[in-house]
Amino acid sequence: MPSMNKFRAGSERGNRRVGDGRRTVDPALRQLRYALTAFFAVDGFVFAGWVVRIPAVKEQTGASASALGLALLGVSVGAVVTMTLTGRLCQRLGNHPVTVGAALLLSASVALPAHAHSAVVLGAMLLLFGAGFGGMNVAANSAAVDLVAALGRPVMPSFHAAFSLGGMVGAGAGGLVAGSLSAAWHLSALALIGVLVAVVAGRALLAHPAPRAPGPEPEPAAGSDAPRAGAAGPVGWLVVVLGVVAACTAYGEGALADWSALHLRETLLASEGLAAAGYTVFALAMTVGRLSGTWLLLRLGQTRAMVAGGSVAAAGMLLASLAPSVWPALLGFVVTGLGLANIFPVAIGQAGSLAGPRGVAAASTVGYGGMLLGPVAIGFLADWFSLATALTSVALLSAAAAAIAYGMRGSAQTVS
Fold first, then answer.
1. End-to-end CA distance of the chain
2. Model pTM?
3. Side-chain half-sphere exposure of 328, counting CA atoms within 13 A
4. What is the rounded CA–CA span in Å between residue 403 and residue 105?
5. Cβ contacts of 77 within 8 Å, gap of 6 or more
């Protein structure tokens, strides 16, 4: 495995070996990793905290369901537009300053929706919030790609695990305070926490330039068989394909966030409390899968991990959607979460390795489009067929992600 051994030799600024063969990490890179982990965590924390207060904001604005739906599109529009621009901004200003700026915008703007008194004003405020969310995801992922290359280890899933953990904490804390704290106070507290984290963690990012991979060209991380420029076809084409892989799996994440509880409640007649456990076990499985992602990637390589993950997720979702009772369905959600966990971060990381921040921006825009499309598509399919049948589309797209990743193996730097 010459390519893996070459990279594992470490970088001048990255990993070093001491006399007994153990690997040490440059303290600056370790500090950067902690800081980036904090940014990913606060991203999930703030976004989930906003989501749990949507019912209160709806009541405050007096908006109808359709008007609220249009207002909520502000998040999507703001995110997608900003994602397309953030790659260029990162190339001009650097990943670290843009990450800090986007985090400050995301955190500060989460307080605004609680002061909206109409759907139109709410939509305008959510444009800002969406801009912060989109910019944060592209810039932080771009910074993570640089750090992964410098460390020489495939630690990208650990950052996304921090996002998942932050989301679980944000949603849980929001649920606990929803009955006793107004949306205005809650979202203001979220804003304050987010700004403080951005300021403290941002000092570490701004104090150090973005690290560079060893050698004259960036190499894939250890255990990686990421596509490389010139391997087969234009880089831009490969980035788009990676974005499609990310979208296929993000579709499932978005669909299960909105429809898993309803499937358990209406299709399988679960109690309200048990139905709520559907997304909880899925999110927990995603987090566990991402925390073990580095171990998995070191053993399988990135392409094999995506193929295996998509196949496992497809099997799990078929079980969850077609199960005759609640407990097999919950098991299916767990298997689906484990399968989907690492595909999105690996695909985004490969896009960044190919084309830098613009690659991250392009793949993220396509990928998050799948997350936005999932809930809507499931709704239409459920009206035409049934909710159980509609959820099988998650299995279909997971299998498609595995097939696409397998088909890209000829364009990859294979590590055996």
1. 6
2. 0.78
3. 10
4. 38
5. 127, 130
Cα–Cα distance measured from residue 94 to residue 175, given in angstroms and rounded to the nearest whole number: 37
Locate all alpha helices (DSSP H) within 263-342, ordered by sequence: 272-291, 293-300, 302-322, 326-340
| Residues in the chain with pLDDT values less than 70 | 1-25, 65, 212-235, 410-416
Of the candidates 10, 150, 118, 136, the one whose C-alpha atom is nearest the C-alpha of residue 78 is 136
Does residue 269 come out as left (phi exceeding 0), alpha (psi in the -120 to 50 range) or beta?
A: left
Q: What is the pLDDT of residues 217-228, one digit of tens each?
A: 444 444 444 444
What CA–CA distance (Å, rounded) separates 340 from 323?
19
Strand 15-17 with 23-25, pairing: antiparallel
Q: Are 82 and 135 in contact (CB under 8 A)?
A: yes
Given a contact cutoff of 8 angstroms between Cβ atoms, the answer to whether 38 and 174 are in contact is no
CA R_g for the chain = 21
CB 225 within 8 A of CB 346: no
Measured in degrees and rounded to the nearest 5, phi and psi for residue 24 equal -115, 155
